[in-house]
Structure formats: C-alpha cells, structure tokens
Amino acid sequence: MLTLRLYMLQRITALLMAPLVLGHLAVMIYAIQGGVSAAEILGRTQGSLAWFLFYGTFVIAVSVHGAIGLRTVAHEWGGLKGPVLEGFMWGFGLILLILGGRAVWAVTFATGVNA
C-alpha cells in the first residue's frame, strides 16, 4: 500500500512540476534574451510573495518527487530495504527541501550581501 501511495504522490508532483518547469523556463528565456542582469532579477523578485509561492511550491514538489525517485533507485540498484531505505528517502528529501528553501528565501526575501 505504501508503494502505491508513493507512486501516486510522485505522479501528482510530476503534474504539479510540469507547469512550474515551463514557467521557470519562460522566465529564464525572457531574462537571457532581454539581457536582464542578476541584480535586475533580484530587484524584481525581492519582497515578492508571488515569486516566493511559485518557487516555494516548485521546491516542495521537486523535493518530494526526487526523494521518491531516488528511493526507487536505491532499492532497485543499491539493495536498500526497510528502515534504511525509508531513512535514506526522508533524509534526501529533507536535504533537497532545505537547500531549495534557502535558495527561494535568498531570491525573494533575504537582503544583504551574505543573505
């Protein structure tokens, strides 16, 4: 039953990520073709709840999706099972969430050079 739930959760996160990836790519293409600098990008994203929610949702979906996918790889190729496999999945997902969350915070709300 757990495997079915994880399978469905991975598919749901994939459906959620698809439009977010397209939106991210559209923003990146616009920024590159428009010659927008990193400072200009940060000027537009700092203090923006909309960008925080967009990229925050993206990070959560990627963290869940990636952790479940890596769990499958660790089980099939690495032979991990039981609590070790579950701990690996949760640990990897948490690392992705922390790193992605820090990046989103830095781009949307943190201020200063060392943010």
UniProtKB/TrEMBL annotation:
Q: Where in the cell is it found?
A: Membrane
Signal peptide bounds: none
Q: Which domain of life is it from?
A: Bacteria
Q: Please give the cofactor(s) recorded in the UniProt entry for this protein.
A: heme
Which InterPro entries does the annotation name?
SQR/QFR_C/D, SuccDH_FuR_B_TM-su
One GO cellular component term of this record is: membrane
Q: Does the keyword Nuclease apply?
A: no
- Output the Pfam families linked to this UniProt entry: Sdh_cyt
User: Where, by residue number, does the polypeptide cross the bilayer?
Assistant: 12-32, 52-73, 85-105
Q: Which GO terms describe its molecular function?
A: metal ion binding
What UniProt keywords apply to this chain's record, in alphabetical order? Heme, Iron, Membrane, Metal-binding, Transmembrane, Transmembrane helix
State what this protein does.
Answer: Membrane-anchoring subunit of succinate dehydrogenase (SDH).
Q: What is this protein called?
A: Succinate dehydrogenase
